[in-house]
């Protein structure tokens, strides 16, 4: 379980990026983090793995307070946290398999990582993960030969290679077309359910988030203003999070629908006609 307790991040100038954010994410639950640009979503994710140092508050992964760890303990704790990036963060000249195995770098001696001689168990597991994300046939391809959706799948497999206890996902669909975006979100949520992984997904696409996540947390100006199931996100709360807009007209049209029923996904508002 992940627990945030009064998490605050303030910089030397400007308003605080996060203000007393408190919530829990139990095992197997996928939380969608929504809010306008500058609301503090990416800062929150980066505070959890301490790529950004919190100003105050506590972050617990099970019983471990991540904010109190020294550098050595933090390196060990980060092995427990899988990160999936918006821009994939792959090594383009390496193969798909080598990129997945890079998720084991925190567990193997330097000489093994330098010579790319990973234990057989790690290699077998990497093949299983590539099969799970649908890329087994691409194991020997260079990363720069893949499509955006395939690269994101490699990033998912790499994060899982860490055998994490928590997934942090930063805008996983921002560079993808609507059909591929749904496939990636479906894959993430299925894997979290299979492995009972808690996850936080920073996502701008509210209808997509509503379709796949278990729970939504809304931020505005660093404060938590919404924490509930997707079906409870109504027009009034959308206005509270994002500002005034005609939310009933908020539709997402796909260029490549998976089926006729998927051609248009509307924002689900309580009481709206279906």
Structure, explained:
With 274 residues, the chain is of the alpha/beta class. The chain has a domain of 139 residues: Rossmann fold, CATH 3.40.50. Helix content is 32%, strand content 22%. It is built from nine helices and twelve strands. The strands form three sheets. It has a six-stranded mixed β-sheet with strand order 6-7-8-3-9-10, with helices on both faces.
Keywords:
Rossmann fold; ABC_transporter-like_ATP-bd; alpha/beta
Based on DSSP secondary structure assignment, what is the total number of beta strands? 12
Any idea of the CATH class of one domain?
Answer: Alpha Beta
CATH homologous superfamily of one domain, by name? P-loop containing nucleotide triphosphate hydrolases
Strand content: 15-25%
Helix content: 25-40%
Mean pLDDT: 85
What sequence of helices (H) and strands (E) makes up the elements? EEEHEEHEHHHHEHEHEEHEE
Looking at CATH, which topology of one domain would you report?
Answer: Rossmann fold
Membrane topology: Peripheral membrane protein
Subcellular location: Cell inner membrane
InterPro entries: AAA+_ATPase, ABC_transporter-like_ATP-bd, ABC_transporter-like_CS, ABC_transpr_PhnC, MetN_ABC_transporter-like, P-loop_NTPase
Pfam family, one: ABC_tran
SSE layout and pairing:
Layout: E1 2-9, E2 18-25, E3 30-34, H1 41-48, E4 56-61, E5 64-65, H2 71-78, E6 81-84, H3 96-101, H4 110-115, H5 120-132, H6 148-161, E7 166-170, H7 178-195, E8 199-202, H8 206-212, E9 215-220, E10 223-228, H9 235-242, E11 251-253, E12 264-266
Parallel strand pairs: 3-8, 3-9, 6-7, 7-8
Antiparallel strand pairs: 1-2, 1-4, 4-5, 9-10, 11-12
Helix pairs in contact: 5-6, 6-7
Protein name: Phosphonate ABC transporter ATP-binding protein
Pfam family, one: ABC_tran
Membrane topology: Peripheral membrane protein
């Amino acid at each position: 379980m992940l627990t945030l307790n009064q998490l605050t991040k303030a910089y030397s100038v400007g308003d605080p990026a996060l203000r007393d954010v408190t919530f829990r994410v139990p095992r197997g639950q996928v939380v969608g983090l929504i809010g306008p640009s500058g609301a503090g979503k990416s800062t929150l994710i980066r505070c959890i793995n301490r790529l950004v140092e919190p100003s105050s508050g506590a972050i617990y992964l099970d019983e471990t307070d991540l904010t109190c760890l020294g550098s050595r303990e933090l390196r060990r704790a980060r092995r427990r946290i899988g990160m999936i990036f918006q821009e994939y963060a792959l090594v383009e000249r390496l193969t798909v398999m080598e990129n997945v195995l890079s998720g084991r770098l925190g567990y193997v001696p330097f000489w093994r990582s330098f010579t790319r001689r990973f234990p057989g168990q790690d290699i077998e597991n990497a093949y299983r993960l590539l099969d799970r994300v649908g890329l087994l046939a691409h194991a020997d391809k260079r990363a720069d030969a893949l499509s955006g959706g395939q690269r994101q799948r490699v990033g998912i497999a790499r994060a899982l290679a860490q055998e994490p206890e928590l997934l942090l996902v930063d805008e996983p669909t921002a560079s993808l077309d609507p059909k591929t975006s749904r496939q990636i979100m479906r894959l993430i949520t299925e894997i979290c359910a299979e492995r009972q992984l808690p996850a936080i997904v920073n996502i701008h696409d509210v209808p997509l988030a509503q379709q796949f996540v278990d729970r939504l947390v809304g931020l505005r100006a660093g404060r938590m203003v919404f924490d509930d199931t997707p079906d409870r996100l109504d027009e009034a709360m959308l206005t509270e999070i994002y500002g005034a807009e005609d939310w009933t007209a908020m539709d997402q049209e796909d260029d490549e629908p998976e089926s006729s029923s998927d051609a248009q996904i509307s924002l689900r508002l309580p009481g709206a006609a279906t």
